[in-house]
């Protein structure tokens, strides 16, 4: 095993270079935190303890903010920067921002309904009405119609949402905005939204929402599916555009990503048209300055090269770690787009991205 690790590190150009230990810092989304933890633990082994990554799972909003403030080498977000943010970053720093997809995941409606063992079905409209406060109890006829034969208790519904700036919230509200005109008008989409007054509880991070749902009978929230599985929380199937109730499993998450990707890879996958696709799927993105020397967190070319090598590894060799954690691999098209974006990275004018990616 050790021989394999040394060989892999040599291929990365790290072990043979005599590179001193590099410490990289990132911050952002909780959505991909389980797989990022796996990546960075494995990468430390691959590089023979030469490249250590400290990642702060603080939510996409916090990751975007720290990236813009240049207190980290990279940010992570479930939603890419919008056009205005992209323009502001370029104007303020002189460097474009890159949104590099590295994993596919799904957001699911999690719930705690004692005595109900069957997986519940939801439509987007019903989920919107629950989170708007229009549906207040679990035995509401709108829920019962979707779940014939299930004995639904007359429990009041407690809605649990993120209290921090969150890409998971963006994905969830982006979907609800597409399927519910009332939601789009009254709440809309965003990393943070104004939750309408109702029986609602806020919690920080995917971990916080999962914890409140798990400990609150009658609760419903939204989580990246890995958190639901790891915490053994019930989660529902969601009806897609084709009228099918889809469970967030790997083939369905992958199917949602079979879309035309723009050159910058910024895209919404929610409310997919794929007949077998799960309708609340999303990429997660690494947020990177195209000109790394414009990010004051980078102190040397060695740091920059180590970071670009990490990025390449994440979207290639590291993809094998996704599926055991219920994240889907990048599609071939998404992987090619990610590598093309990485190849654009420079440091003090040197085309280090092109040198490392080999294109």
UniProtKB/TrEMBL annotation:
Residues 20-308 form the PBP domain. Pfam families: PBP_like_2. Keywords: Phosphate transport, Signal, Transport. It comes from the Bacteria. CDD domains: PBP2_PstS. InterPro entries: ABC_phos-bd_PstS (IPR005673), PBP_domain (IPR024370), Phosphate-bind_PstS (IPR050962). GO terms for cellular component: ATP-binding cassette (ABC) transporter complex. This is Phosphate-binding protein. It comes from Meiothermus taiwanensis. The gene is pstS.
